[in-house]
Amino acid sequence: MRESTPAPGRPARLNRQAIVQAAMRSDLRTLTMRELAAALRVSHSALYRWVPDKDGLFDLISAEMVDRVLPTAEPTTSNWRDWLRDLAWRMHDEFLAVPGYAAHVAAPHRHNPESFERLRGQVITAFRAAGAGPEMAEQSWYIYGLSVVRWIGADHADYDLGQSPPRFDLFLETLLRGLPAQE
């Protein structure tokens, strides 16, 4: 059986979803725009019409990630802690499923303003539902966001010599017991 080769002529049209899916199947630590274009079977100039640079690519990926991780239910006074727990586990699972993504978000980087604000706004809403005032809800966001992202992005390779890696469930429960922040 012969492998089919693409017919000559105009390449398939690109779209946001195809670009994001191809990128997320790669190791984002080493992916180049040329490699991504090759994976999509388009010229790198065609890819640059959709994505101006690697920061633009991470903007697309981050928007997709926020769509995946934000719970559909709104945080309320009765579910805020469960909502934050659900969000953290979703971040854990989705960020670690894409090679290089957790390390990227744990390191200093430029944030996608729209997706970052959606995530930030919902987490602050959860802390406000917990009874925190505006300033303490903002502080709680920083503590929660930095802690969860840094834990997920940490390289736990040092624990392969017979030691168990740090448990995310214990980390998360300890973190949530201390939040929202208080003066």
TrEMBL record:
Keyword DNA-binding set for record: yes
Keyword annotations: DNA-binding, Transcription, Transcription regulation
InterPro entries named among the record's database cross-references: Homeodomain-like_sf, HTH-type_TetR-like_transc_reg, Tet_transcr_reg_TetR-rel_C_sf
GO MF terms held by the record: DNA-binding transcription factor activity; transcription cis-regulatory region binding
This protein's record includes keyword Transcription: yes
PANTHER family in UniProt: HTH-TYPE TRANSCRIPTIONAL REGULATOR RUTR, TRANSCRIPTIONAL REGULATORY PROTEIN
Protein name, UniProt field: AcrR family transcriptional regulator
Species name: Gordonia humi
